[in-house]
Structure formats: C-alpha cells, structure tokens
Amino acid sequence: MNIAIxxxxxxxxxxxxxxxxGLLAALALRQRGIKSIVLEAKPGLIRRDSGAITMPRPVLExxxxxxxxxxxxxxxxxxxxxxxxxxxxxxKWHLWTHDYSRHVTGGMPPFINxxxxxxxxxxxxxxxxxxxxxxxxxxxxxxxxxxxxxxxxVITAKAVYTTPYVIACDGVHSPTRxxxxxxLAGDRSTCKFVILDIIADLPLSSERRYYFSAPGCKxxxxxxxxxxxxxxxxxxxxxxxxxxxxxxxxxxxxxxxLHNGDIERRLRRIIGNVPYELNWKSVYHFNQxxxxxxxxxxxxxAGDAAHAFSPFGAPGLTTGFGDVMLLADxxxxxxxxxxxxxxxxxxxxxxxxxxxxxxxxxxxVLRAMIPKNTFDRLWRNVRLLLGVVFPGLRAALDSGxxxxxxxxFS
Length: 410
Ligand SMILES: Cc1cc2nc3c(=O)[nH]c(=O)nc-3n(C[C@H](O)[C@H](O)[C@H](O)COP(=O)(O)OP(=O)(O)OC[C@H]3O[C@@H](n4cnc5c(N)ncnc54)[C@H](O)[C@@H]3O)c2cc1C
What we know:
alpha+beta, six-stranded mixed beta sheet, 27% strand, globular, binds flavin-adenine dinucleotide
C-alpha cells in the first residue's frame, strides 16, 4: 500500500501519523508547494473506530478549500442534518430544539455525519493523486527524534529521515509528545461513556438528540443519539453514547454487559423494539486536555497530539484541522518565502489559545452532564425544567452555568 517515490529524497516536512490531521497536513502542504513524507505506525489505514462522526461547518470549509474532491464526496455519501433536540427524564420530555436550517448557505450544510475511517480513506485517495508531493509509509513507526540547530532526524525501524521540520499528528497518546517531555494538561471525565454504533432503521428523523437524566441511566446520566453514514454507499446507522455513573464506571465490564443483557436493556430504553445490528462498540473516559506547548524546536504537535476533548460539540477535528491550516501557512512562509523561523512561534500562541477556549467550553458541558453530587444534579434539573416551564427565564439561565454553550452543545 506504500506509495513509492524517489527513495532517499530529502523532503522539507515529515508528518508522523496518518490519521485525519496527518493526512490533511500533507494535503495542505502540497497545496502550498511543499513536499512531505507521512510515517504511519500501522500497516494500513484504520478501517473501523469510534472517532469523529460529526463534521461541523468549519471542518467542511477547510476540506472544501484544501481537498474539494473529498468535500464533494462527503456531501454525496455523508448524512446531513440541521436539528438538535434535547429531552429530559425517563419520559423523554422535550426541552428544546435548535434548528440550524438557516445556516445552510452556499449549499454547504451545517453538519455532515460520517464514520471517521471513511473520511480518512477519502483523504488518502486524494493524497494518491499527488505522488510527487506526498509519500505515505505504512508500518513505519517513528521511534526516535533528535534535533540540531539546523534540522531534525526521525528514526524508524526501516530508515533515518533528516528534515527541517516535523509535524507530530500521532494522536492523543502521542509517543512524540511524550518523548519531547511535553505535558497534556487538564482533566478527564469521572465517568465512562459507552459508545455503540448500530445499523438500524429507527423511526426517527435524522437529527441529533440528547437526553438529560435519560431512561436506563443512573445518577442523572445522559444519552446522545446521533445519525451517521456508515459506508461509502451512504448506508444509515446511529451512534448511541451512554453515560455511566462514576460507580458503574469503576466496575464496568463491556463483555459481561453484552452477555448479561445490560447493554440490550439500556439500548431498548432508547431505541424501542426496532431490530439492530451492532457495528462497533467502545468505552471511553473523555479528556479535556491541552499540551503545555505545541512546539519543541523543529517539532510541532497538531491534532489530538496537542489536545484532547470530549466529542460533545465535535471540537476534535475543528481544532485539529485549524492547527494544521495555520501550521501549513507558517511553514510556507518560512520554507517558500524565507520568513524568519521566529514566525513559527505564532503557532503555539494562537492555536493553544483556541484550544484553551474549547477546553473551557468542554469542561462546562461535561459539568452539566456529570453533576458533582446529588444537590448539584437537582439544581441542574430544576434549572433545566424552569427554562422550559417559563421560557422567559431562559435568557436569565443563559448567563449562568447553563449558558447558551451548554444548550448548543447538549
Ligand atoms: C468516541 C469519539 C467520538 C468522536 N467524535 C468526534 C466528532 O463527532 N467530531 C470530531 O471532530 N471529533 C470527534 N472525535 C475526535 C476525533 O476522533 C479526533 O480528534 C481525531 O481522530 C484526531 O485525529 P488525529 O489525526 O489527530 O489523531 P488519530 O486519529 O489518533 O491518528 C493518529 C495516527 O498516528 C499513528 N501513530 C501513533 N504513533 C505513531 C508513531 N510513533 N509513528 C507513526 N504513526 C503513529 C496512529 O496509528 C494513528 O493512525 C471523537 C473521538 C472519539 C473517541
């Protein structure tokens, strides 16, 4: 599967990791006339996972500008939707609906949902159009990085690459970040979230639904139900994200929960008796973490290597793609237009600030979803219900912990 071009050729940028951010980085650099090699530890592209399914408008705009063919294909096979509805309690009382239809401008929808591995495949297909600019090397993990004042060297089990700049897009557990001794600072959710991707023909319109104090959840836990396109033919499925209580999280055993009917019971409380096929499953703690710096000499962190957020509000790719675009512009300045290397310092300054703002919003959303104690939970519920019974109070509630961001993200 390797694309072989000019062995031994010196390239100005080595990218570590062929996830969505690494591949977008290669395409953005290509667009600016800069060659790169992408090193990927795995033997091929990841074919299934629980990654991003929602691509909001900022992500779509970047894709349209860097890889218009990818954007067009996503538009064709992805699932577009315009409404977010939030419910409360065991009887699923309707709290509010946000309609984003007016955000459909220039034919671009506010959101496209598609499983992450299909987005990655489309980005990779696009890269294959530019063999003179990008080489992707699978089964080649970056094992070591050394730097001098004038270059950086990346060592794998197969080769040694010396290059002016390295971009590490090697994910949330980034071995590169750890090697450089950069800390990912922040916290993670006290409880776990069970993610189920199912194929089912639910009698529901395609919109995003969130249930506070959802049926089947303990300690006021919530459930997210979101439609997704699961294959290149646009087959429809749903992602269901169950919040476990902190107590359940400590002892949760996925296989046991599948076999003893626990998962089935929870699922039925949300989807009813409709037949379904389980497509993928996973369980996570959600992080709210940002790296203390995004640059160490000639090595830059981008994407999840630099920050990790809960998926609520889909900040993952928005933040990662934004990193990649600014870095590509700055590297173009230095490599193509002879700008001073000090201009690269803008990268950490601007992108960390952006990530820290996302971190604050994300923490606020998680606080609403995971109240600290019973009192906190009751107060949250009172505020939610007051806002429904007296819609006039919503404006006042908006200025508190239940500000617009929580409402928008939930
Ligand atoms: C359940 C869940 C739901 C999510 N939902 C959304 C969503 O709806 N919208 C959204 O925007 N985001 C979402 N996210 C976040 C999104 O999935 C991530 O932001 C995204 O995957 C980050 O991409 P990346 O390229 O930075 O890292 P990754 O996708 O993790 O890719 C890193 C790559 O680096 C490779 N690698 C690692 N170490 C090395 C090495 N030493 N050498 C070479 N290669 C290496 C790995 O094999 C991997 O291929 C979600 C995440 C989860 C877990």
